[in-house]
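W.,

You were right to be curious about this one. When I first looked at the sequence I had no strong expectations either way, so I just let the prediction run and decided to look at it fresh. Below is the sequence, 122 residues in total, followed by the output.
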Amino acid sequence: MLHGEQSSPESGGAAAVAEERAWRCAACGASIARDGDRIPLEGAAARAFVNPAGIEYLIAGFREAQGCAAAGERSSYWSWFAGYCWQVALCGACGVHLGWRFESDADRFYGLVLDRLSAPSA
């Protein structure tokens, strides 16, 4: 049996693949990122940051966010993470602004606004 599969009486003994828990776009419900891809930001589960316009965002980090589409030019202006450029990250399904993709020469991750996502259900 493969990793993540389990046999159940309802499936007649056939392997059933467990669905990965997903963070979803709060606006449209599209799958944005897997819970297993969540990473700490500077040691914290979530961090609050303020942009140049004075708007505060509470963001969580993700190694990958397959449901996001990058938009606009990359910029290092007012980056919340030293050595990283940022680019706007939109929901790939409905186009809502979900956060940012941060990229350095050696690394990249997504910082997604928590109140624009639906957390995985238990």
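Here's what jumped out at me. The radius of gyration is 17 Å. And, maybe more interesting for your project: DSSP finds no helices and twelve strands in the chain.

Coffee later to discuss?

I.
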